[in-house]
Amino acid sequence: PQGRVIVIDATRPTKLLRLLDDLGLDGTIEHLIITHPHDDHFRGGNRLAREKNIEEATVAPFWHEFGMGPPTYRALIARLASQQTNTTSLSGYSRWYPDGALTEPPAGVDPEIDHDAPFLELLGPTNGLVRMLEDANVFNTNHLSIMTRLSWRRFRMISTGDAQMENWSYFDTERLMEDKCQVLRASHHGSPNGTQWERITRLGPSQVIVSSDPHSGHHLPDLTATAIFTKFNSASGQMAALTVDTGTIHLRVTSGGHRKLTRFGDAPGADVDLTAGVSLTESSNPTDWAALLDNRVAGL
Question: What digits encode the pLDDT tens for the residues 147-199?
Fold first, then answer.
């Protein structure tokens, strides 16, 4: 509400920088969150750090060899350090209030938490979770993913990077499943290990955004996840959409809780024309999940 800018993962820097400028935002990013050191989540971070003032950054556990990532990722961490960005290597739970947490009281009165202030909850893998997965010989870089929940009044949105089912289990252990969300950015491009029906039904979102192109090299969402999203999308009042079909999505939430999604139909490398948006609703959703499910079944 006070114009703070939070960027979760940075990939196509030219497109991202132009979009930030077109939205009329200033040259400061208050918080950059890189969920984990995979190229398709951080590759634009170095240019972003060169051209914008980044006040705070949160990254995956840097002490682990997987968390250190490739040289280009280490260069990003070094650049943030050289620019004196307050950088946190997250392990466990953290909470951040972009607009401030405390209300200014009258003289002589203790400040109180502002319950109307938006806040981010960040959940990274604990040392114990990492070690347990290593002992079981199943650990990979995706398990380092930072999961983020944004709350503002009654609105909640969850973005999960490439979190796997073990990360979701920890999300549940921290009792973050008990509050419903309205919007969910599906984990790991809709992979079966990041998307389970039980998680979606417990969180109860109305809209699920799946950032993926199912016909690209990674073939996600696969058959299992496609069946889940097809079932979810078939229910009244629910919508799952693939970003390859929608292009960039703009979500606006008002203080009264009303939310509106707009899609722009741009290709991944193309600029976003903010004057050419179309409302994204159940009836205007361009993703044909039933056809994709038929395609996945035919490929068995």
Answer: 999 999 999 999 999 999 999 998 998 888 889 999 999 999 999 899 889 99
Which pLDDT score, from 0 to 100, does residue 94 have?
Answer: 95
Residues 54 and 29: beta-carbon distance below 8 Å: yes
Global confidence as pTM: 0.94
Per-residue tokens: 49: 């750090």
> Nearest CA to 92 among 117, 58, 69?
58
Give the burial string for 29-46 (b: 16+ CB within 10 Å, else e).
Answer: bbbbbbbbbbeebbbbbb
Q: Which letter, b or e, does each residue of 267-282 get, where b requires 16 or more Cβ atoms within 10 Å of its Cβ?
A: eeeeebeeeebeebee
Res. 26: pLDDT tops 90: no
Of 65, 35, 37, nearest in space to 130 by CA? 65
**Per the structure block, which two tokens stand in for 186?**
């599906």
Q: Could you say which DSSP state residue 272 is in? A: P
Phi and psi angles of residue 114, each rounded to the nearest 5 degrees, phi first: -85, 105
For residues 247 and 249, give the distance between their C-alpha atoms in angstroms, rounded to a whole number.
6
Classify burial at 299, counting beta carbons within 10 Å of its beta carbon; exposed 0-12, middle 13-18, buried 19 or more. exposed
**DSSP 8-state symbol, 102:** B
Kindly report the length of the chain: 300
Contact predicate 195/222, CB 8 Å: no
Query: Which has the closest alpha carbon to 187: 173, 216, 1, 171?
Result: 171
Close Cβ partners of 158 (under 8 Å, ≥ 6 residues apart)? 147, 148, 149, 150, 181, 183, 184, 185, 203, 205
Give 92's strand partners.
124
